[in-house]
Amino acid sequence: MSEPKSPTPTPGDTYKGWLFKWTNYIKGYQRRWFVLSNGLLSYYRTQAEMGHTCRGTINLATANIAVEDSCNFVISNGGAQTYHLKASSEVERQRWITALELAKAKAVQMQAESDDSGDDFPAVSPNSGQGGDCRNTEIQSTLRTLNSKVEDLATCNDLIVKHGSALQRSLSELEGLRVAVDMGEKVKQVTERATLFRITSNAMINACRDFLSMAQSHSKRWQKALQTEREQRIRLEETLEQLAKQHNHLERAFRGATVLPPSFSNPALGNKGGVSGKADASDEDDDNEFFDAMEEPAEFITVPADPKYHRRSGSNISGISSETGTDDQSVNFDELSLASNPESPQPLELEPVRQRRTRIPDKPNYYLNLWSIMKNCIGKELSKIPMPVNFNEPLSMLQRLSEDLEYYELLDKAAKSHSSLEQMCYVAAFTVSSYSTTVHRTGKPFNPLLGETFELDRHRECGYRSLCEQVSHHPPAAAHHAFSEKGWTLRQEITLASKFRGKYLSIMPLGSIQCIFEKSNNHYSWKKVTTTVHNIIVGKLWIDQSGEIDVVNHKTGDRCHLKFAPYSYFSRDVPRKVTGVVTDKDGKAHYVLSGTWDEKMEFSKIMQSSKGENGTEGKQRTVYQTLKAKEIWRKNPLPEGAENMYYFSSLALTLNEPEEGVAPTDSRRRPDQRLMEEGHWDEANAEKQRLEEKQRSTRREREREAVKAASSPEEGGHPDTYQALWFEKMDDPVSGETLHIYKGGYWEAKEQGNWDMCPDVF
Questions:
Q1: Sign of the alpha-carbon torsion through 433, 436, 442, 443
Q2: Are 382 and 499 in contact (CB under 8 A)?
Q3: What distances in angstroms separate CA 624 from CA 301, 605, 615, one per listed residue?
Q4: Cellular component per GO (predicted)?
Q5: Phi, psi of 264 (to 5 degrees)
Q6: For residue 42, with 0-12 CB atoms within 10 Å meaning exposed, 13-18 middle and 19 or more buried, which class applies?
Q7: DSSP strand pairing (559-564 vs 577-583)
């Protein structure tokens, strides 16, 4: 387990190798990969972690190195960090001791050289308790000295002016003299004044030299101090990022159950209190490794079905009997559905209306300090925070809702399905696919203005039309209606509740999504999961989706339970994992879905189910015997150069493309959004403020009119609320929910070109 023999390192070398590090009494010594570089000793769990996850670092410049025995040694920096290490042999230990001593000597030397050797002021250790006070005293003393020199220069300047004027007068008088007797006395007077002027000038020159020397001396020192502060700030940001991650893991562990793995199920070892005093805070992730709260046990296990199921007829999906013995035919949704449906329409020859754009202007690289804005917004509702466009992407929330239709083909296929269970699989895959565009999209969409709309007319290309309208401003709510000639209708009303928690932002979509298929009259409904944006303060922003979705068929009682696993630092599962089970009204499982929300989903037909062994929490997990998994959905690749275009998909690139004939309230006509897309961010910020103030004024005027109408003798009751133009709030008799449903008229108004009823939004 030791490293191959290596030569004794020199002070400039980077030294690497395996050592055993003490963690706690349960685990004892654990093998870790150590790296010694630039006076810092860092360690990782594996060599592969070197690029992204450092487990701990100690500065050798202030550390003590002590040898305990032939293989063990200790590195400590005074109590805050202590590493108890063990080498594989005495020779290996001596190599490490030599490398550490050389690195420490060099680190101390570099630290000493960082202080100006010619400085009159003593160096102050940044670790001392009164370091800040001493440094302030030093700066104040330097400023007083420099002020004194400046005062000397001012005095010398006044004297030079005074004596120079007197000398000039004497010279003028000397020119006017004619009597030889007076000449000698005047020459003597001029000589005296010239001497005074020379003395004063020399004093001025000496004072300037002293001031320049002192300024140069302290300039060097301050430049070094500034560089040191910059390096310390970078280290502090990195440390803060690590602490934020550790705090996040601890929060998750606290919220979940604390469970030891089966290998440590001995009650004598189950007591968390018995942790060694040698275990230091830098190895905190090692101590928490065995109670990862977020890695919840799977509710079910899938195993390959018995071969006998592959020899029998595998598909009763669409009421077809088959004597073929291949599982490919038994679960191929598309082929079976189309083959069993003689009334299936032939593929349409689609005629594109126009050539859609494939690029937008590249995102400008403008710097903005996020923390300077967000620090005053902790705990507030995101929709009430005035944000510059620097944090936005050039799309509105209405356009983001329309992006859910990127994989509309899944609903087209579902509409052709004869089996409600098969149809459920497609609807569930469509539900997951709507999150695939969010994985890199860290920009915030524009909050739509009240009455703003967005149409997505892909009737001739894709067979569907979509309309969104902002029906409420506080709380912000958008209604969406889409229908297809393939026989499906999608409608949703989404209200966003969001909170900024300091290190992450949680976005909780409220409201439901419904999908109705005309042919079968199947009516589905589901809700969205929580979106979390991490590393708001420091580090690279990343997005996670977590939660559970129940897709319900209100007609048949079929149900699909989808689980979006939150990212877990300790989990061995693939990130962004999604699993689901399709069951009928009696609770019998028929299909298993699995995959990731950012790449693909697969389904497997369940042939048999049974109760398996207990999980880590004592829950009995179900074992499903399934046929070979088949892919039901895969994410489309991003267009070339997407990283410079806000990571927009091919559909997203076309959403803000100008189009003729759209309503005057359409998001494409929004000026601040258009200016941002074109790269004019300063103008976009000014336009955004104008639009928001206009909206506030309109709202105040509407409220005044409503109060006036309510208080008049003819009118009674409370002030009326805003009425949407294209949607009407009503109860859905099938799902029992109240939501805004499209009442018609938009597409007819577009054909007639009559937008007189539209409000002045922009």
A1: negative
A2: yes
A3: 6, 9, 15
A4: cytosol; perinuclear endoplasmic reticulum; plasma membrane
A5: -120, 40
A6: middle
A7: antiparallel
Fill in the amino acid letter for 623: V
Question: Which residue(s) pair with 24 in the sheet?
Answer: 28
Q: What is the dihedral of CA 486, 488, 494, 500, to 10 degrees?
A: -60
Question: What confidence tier does 409 reach under pLDDT thresholds 50, 70, 90?
Answer: very high
The identity of residue 709, as a single letter, is A
What's the one-letter identity of residue 369?
N
Distances (CA, A) of 685 to 155, 374, 381, 398: 52, 17, 20, 20
Question: Is residue 288 a contact partner of residue 251, using CB atoms and an 8 Å limit?
Answer: no
Containing 237, the helix (H) or strand (E) segment is helix 180-255
Query: Could you report the per-residue pLDDT of 367-390, keeping only the tens digit for each?
Result: 655 555 555 555 555 555 667 888
Q: 680: which residues sit within 8 A by CB, 6+ positions away?
A: none
The residues near 77 (Cβ < 8 Å, ≥ 6 apart) are 58, 59, 62, 63, 64
How far is 650 from 355, CA to CA, in rounded Å? 13
- Report if pTM > 0.85: no
Residue-level pLDDT at 613: 59
Instruction: Judge residue 743's burial from the number of C-beta atoms within 10 Å of its C-beta, 0-12 exposed, 13-18 middle, 19 or more buried.
Output: middle
Q: What are the CA-CA distances from residue 118 to residues 142, 595, 662 (Å)?
A: 14, 66, 74
- Could you read off the pLDDT of 702-733 as tens digits, one per residue? 888 878 777 665 544 444 468 899 999 998 88
d(CA 145, CA 215): 10
| CA 510 from centre of chain | 21
As a whole number of angstroms, the distance between CA 626 and CA 607 comes to 5
CA 676 to chain CA centroid, nearest Å: 21
